[in-house]
Amino acid sequence: MLIPVILCGGSGSRLWPVSRETHPKPFIRMNDGNSLLQKAFIRGAGLPDVAEVMTVTNGELLTKTQDEFKQVNTRKLPTRYVLEPFGRNTAAAVAMATLLVQRHHGGEATLLVLPADHLITDQAAFEQAVTTASKLAGAGHIVTFGIQPTAPETGFGYIEADGHHVLRFVEKPDLATAETYLASGRYLWNAGMFCFRAETMLAEMRTHCPDILASATACLVASMEGVSDQNSTVVLNREGFANVRSESIDYALMEKTRQAAVVACNLGWSDIGSWQAISDLTPPDQQGNRVLGETVMENTRNCYIESAHRLVGTVGLDDLIIVDTPDALLVARRDQTQDVKKIYNRLHAAGHDASKLHRTVHRPWGTYTVLEEGPFFKIKRIEVNPKASLSLQMHHHRSEHWIVVSGTAKVVNGEQEMLLRTNESTYIPAGHVHRLSNPGIIPLQMIEVQSGQYLGEDDIVRFSDQYGRDVQPPG
Predict the structure, then answer these.
(1) Cβ atoms of residues 104 and 198 within 8 Å
(2) R_g of the chain, CA atoms, integer Å
(3) I need a surface site. Which of 30, 150, 317, 375 has the fewest CB within 10 A?
(4) Strand 425-428 relative to strand 398-406, pairing
(5) Residue 352 lies in a domain
(6) What is the pLDDT of residue 53?
(7) According to the model, what pLDDT value does residue 470 have?
């Protein structure tokens, strides 16, 4: 029995401005139309003897993740979602997944841990590597996957190996050290994938990181688990999860255990860790340019340009990365794309929306798009899915005017409940409890005009919510 476990965390800060906190790297779509997350699901679900697919992700990404999987779960495999209230690194995620697999499938079940944001192009080689890893896992090993290096890469960790035996794990090296690693033939790139039996992982965690396992176990006891059709959802207890020490599985366990083994492989693997890596996926033209979108280029060479929404014109450029989104533009030298995370970190520290949200934001009930904003006003286009409903909520600092464009809206506005149709509207003063629902069978399209002294998305008090988001009692 095999359980692929997809770890869908992190912000993908080096792929800003496409990757944001609410639209992280796993949701970025490749040229074939599938996201990295969907590719990870297809990769794991396509293996033999899979009992279910488990995903560990942030609770706010649940609906988005479910929508991604619905499009590619052609085998109708059972899925289990483990929802973290916030990130606590990979040791916590692996501990939770392993405890749940033991609970539902027993200690002899095999877990295959897969990052959600990696790309593997050779599925046959991947399946062969998993077969080898599963045999080693059955013999009591915790198996990691080592990629045969093709260059002296300084952005990856390395594994020094002798056959399947792990000699040591090595941090990201400088260029001179990486060159010696490549020349020796003993070193592999650490791909961050693992294969092990549940009972083996739990035994090793009791030895090497018992505090993480104990606090994860206590958190799971206090957590809620529900089942709907073939989908299971585990909402991890916030207070209990905060007690789990934040550390990577590499530091917490893999560098200490004597049960580590490695499978050397060549999978067409990339961690898609920068815009340079994204650029390499697109064939160049005769001038070395790689382009996604409409461009007019004059005397431009060796550039990557991505713009889905508007024309980009360039003159006299060389070796640049240009990524255009509706609300942010990135221009960077090709050899400095690792430093894009510094831009993201500065925006995040300043609380800037461009680190967290896109103009179009996905919510469990649908989407909203910011059309225009300025001091004391914001205009949104809101689309509510059929039979979906926003939370019963209130805002302290802003009032809202709702105008129906198409469809039918069911509205709670203070003490009133009403149905609004095309061109009808309602005004909601600040402090009024309100709710918007779509009772129909077609999407509801609305325009929302906000006005007030503060228009931040955190000015919301929820009293009732069907998607499990935090609420508080009225009054």
Answers:
(1) no
(2) 24
(3) 375
(4) antiparallel
(5) no
(6) 97
(7) 67
What is the domain-level CATH number for residue 385?
2.60.120.10
- Residues 89 and 172 occupy one common structural domain: yes
Residues shown for the chain: 475
Nearest alpha carbon to residue 440 among 426, 419, 425, 424: 419
Q: CA 251 to CA 383: how far, in whole Å? A: 44
Classify residue 130: in a domain, yes or no: yes
Q: Which amino acid, residue 25?
A: K
> What are 396-442's pLDDT values in tens digits?
999 999 999 999 999 999 999 999 999 999 999 999 999 999 999 99
Enter the DSSP assignment of 373.
E
For residues 261 and 281, membership in a common domain is answered with: no
| Final residue of a structural domain among 321, 345, 369 | 345
pLDDT tens readout for residues 198-248: 999 999 999 999 999 999 999 999 998 888 777 899 999 999 999 999 999
Q: Clarify whether residues 115 and 236 are in a common domain.
A: yes
- Same domain assignment for residues 109 and 9: yes
If asked whether residues 364 and 330 sit together in one domain, one would say no
- Summarize pLDDT for 415-426 with one digit per residue, the tens: 999 999 999 999
The whole-angstrom separation of Cα 287 and Cα 94 is 46
Q: At what angle do helices 36-45 and 62-70 cross, to 10 degrees?
A: 60
Q: How far is Cα 12 from Cα 275, in angstroms, rounded to an integer?
A: 11
Total number of domains constituting the chain: 3
Site of tokens 């789990």: 244
- Could you tell me which of 319, 462, 439 has the C-alpha nearest to residue 386? 439
158-200, pLDDT tens digit by residue? 999 999 999 999 988 899 999 999 999 999 999 999 999 999 9
Question: In this structure, is residue 353 part of a structural domain?
Answer: no
Q: Distance between CA 390 and CA 438 in Å, rounded? A: 9
Please give the Cα distance from 338 to 274 (Å, whole number). Answer: 6
What band does 469 get if pLDDT is binned at 50, 70 and 90?
low
